[in-house]
Design brief:
heterodimer, A: mainly alpha
Chain lengths: 311, 275
């Protein structure tokens, strides 16, 4: 007879014991709320009464009625596209420079990474101050160059670009991941290609990019997920730039100026937790989930994360 | 050729230095402004006329910073401790135990990691309201007792680098799975565990959406992130004090990083490359 730990049943039990926290957590904080969100999205629910079934009415309002959600969705799509492209390209650019350094790699890497650590609220406050139209150092510097700087966080056309700069400033984490990947590219490949007469660009295009493709893909998906849930920086920047002494997240300052920083998650938050339209907020959450899920499945298909065990 | 090389060296290193300076400059401006008077902060001057160290003390008078700090430490400290207790065994099961469904379970961990927190916010808020825990940070702390997806992911990646033979040897010597985990894998994965702990601490320290959602209407439970976002002067934004508060909130994170830089870099690298 096998000792208890070695029998198939004992082994199952042991796996179960190790996995127990996750099984509980996954059920309570992932599976249950996902199903509940789906259910609530078909109801009208204000947290006080009972949820009342309304069929597809929330979805009808989401896709055809709510004039604000379109602005919010457009802002989020803008951020997903612009932030993803610029963040990956910029981080790759910075990483490429650092990868070529012979001296001071540690110092430059630390300096470039440091802003990524700054708490988002603190970083946002710093940027609203730096880009303050009248008195901030950025426009002061532009004035020295003879350029009239824009109103940045106070101008609907410039608020999102200003947020983009804030995001690029904090791209350090992605930069470090890409740097590690770049340093892993075998130097012999480059040397061989150089001997064959390939120029710097062609070597970058045909050796570097294919070698780091999985990491690049990770960066893209990571940036998309990051942009889909973009909330803190937009909400804080709007509130502070408006100059009103309002509690952050309140309706008057949300999306300032002119809803230009109103993101999809911010509007979801507003609908759910200020207007207590839990049903409608749930419908918005379902839409957000569908988007995220699409990208997650795409990621797993393309990367096959960890399916083959690293020996 | 040699001269060409030297020029290239100079160009690349100047570019590197310029990049480093560009990333650092905003932090320098913030720090300098924190020492200015309110009036000077609204001028184009960059260097403080007189170094007003008292600005940092004034921040504590204007807002209950100590209460914010206490709440942040409670949230980040407990969440990190809970995460370690719950996520290490899960990561061990996902990397060192062999069982059917392991890959499927790991894919679910990744799915949970990718999920924007706003998707599940409504039912979870209602759930915690039923337990009468809204208004506190407990709805954000308690889930860490049941495994944190990103931490599990990171820990698993680290555990995979520890050769199975060490675990097998421990079992030959009479260790059970729990013993093998605690006496072999955990000590060998110490840098990885340190990295996971730091990321968890950092994530919760920086978290704004969660605390705003659950404690937005109860200032006595605000952590630093929410407190800082609401930090305002009476009539206008007092930038010197706001920047002083900003520095105070950034400081612990920067110190933590400078102390444990290597573990940080290694942890970040692991999230992307070994995926």
């Amino acid at each position: 007879m096998a000792p208890p730990g070695r029998s198939p049943f004992g082994r199952r039990l042991r796996v179960l014991a190790f996995m127990a926290p996750w099984i509980v957590g996954f059920t309570a904080f992932f599976a249950y709320p996902l199903l509940a969100t789906g259910y609530f999205s078909f109801t009208s629910y204000d947290l006080l009464g009972e949820p009342a079934w309304v069929g597809l009415r929330n979805y009808a309002y989401l896709f055809a009625g709510d004039p604000v959600v379109r602005i919010a969705a457009a802002n989020t799509v803008w951020l997903v596209v612009v932030l993803t492209v610029l963040r990956v390209v910029f981080a790759l650019g910075v990483a490429s420079v650092i990868a070529r350094l012979r001296r001071g790699v540690g110092l430059v890497r630390t300096l470039c990474y440091l802003p990524a650590l700054a708490p988002p609220v603190a970083a946002t406050l710093a940027f609203v101050f730096l880009f303050n139209p009248g008195t901030g150092p950025v426009n002061g510097f532009l004035r020295v160059l003879g350029v009239d700087g824009p109103l940045w966080f106070n101008d609907p056309a410039w608020a999102k670009p200003a947020l983009t700069l804030l995001t690029l400033w904090g791209c350090g984490e992605l930069m470090i991941i890409l740097l590690a990947a770049l340093l892993d590219v075998p130097a012999e490949l480059h040397e061989a290609a150089a001997l064959d007469g390939a120029g710097a660009w062609r070597r970058f295009r045909h050796i570097t990019i294919p070698s780091i493709a999985p990491v690049l893909l990770f960066g893209v998906v990571n940036s998309v997920i990051f942009s889909l849930q973009y909330f803190t920086q937009a909400v804080v920047a709007g509130a502070v730039a408006s100059g009103q002494a309002e509690v952050v997240g309140s309706s008057k300052v949300l999306g300032f100026p002119d809803n230009s920083t109103l993101t999809f998650p911010a509007w979801l938050y507003q609908q759910g937790f200020h207007y207590y339209n839990m049903g409608y907020a749930s419908a918005m959450a379902v839409l957000l989930f569908a988007f995220s899920l699409g990208f997650t499945i795409w990621l797993i298909r393309r990367m096959r994360i960890g399916v083959e065990e690293a020996a | 050729m040699n001269r060409h090389r030297t020029l290239h060296w100079i160009a690349v290193h100047s570019l590197g230095l310029a990049l480093g300076a560009m990333f650092l400059l905003p932090l320098v401006f913030v720090l300098l402004t924190a020492f200015m008077s309110d009036e000077q902060a609204l001028t184009a001057e960059l260097w403080p006329r007189d170094w007003r160290w008292e600005n940092f003390a004034e921040v504590f008078v204007r807002a209950p910073m100590l209460s914010y700090l206490g709440n942040s430490l409670l949230y980040s400290g407990l969440a990190t401790a809970f995460m370690l207790v719950s996520s290490v065994p899960v990561a061990y099961a996902l990397s060192k135990l062999r069982w059917r469904g392991r890959n499927a379970a790991f894919l679910l961990v990744i799915a949970a990691m990718m999920l924007p927190p706003q998707v599940t916010a409504v039912p979870l808020y209602i759930l915690w309201a039923r337990f009468e825990l809204t208004g506190s940070l407990w709805p954000l702390i308690i889930p860490h007792l049941f495994g944190d997806a990103f931490s599990i992911f990171l820990l698993r990646q680290f555990f995979l680098t520890i050769p199975r033979s060490y675990v097998d040897a421990a079992k030959v010597d009479g260790c059970g799975e729990l013993g093998a985990m605690l006496r072999v894998v955990v000590p060998m994965a110490r840098p990885g565990i340190a990295a996971a702990a730091m990321f968890c601490f950092l994530y919760t320290w920086n978290d704004f959406f969660g605390p705003l959602l659950y404690t937005g209407e109860n200032e006595s439970s605000w952590p630093l992130s929410v407190g800082l976002a609401s930090f305002r002067g009476m009539h206008h934004v007092e930038w010197n004090l706001t920047m002083a508060a900003t520095v105070l909130v950034m400081l612990p994170v920067v110190v933590l990083f400078l102390v444990a830089q290597r573990a940080f870099v290694r942890g970040i690298t692991f999230t992307g490359v070994k995926g």
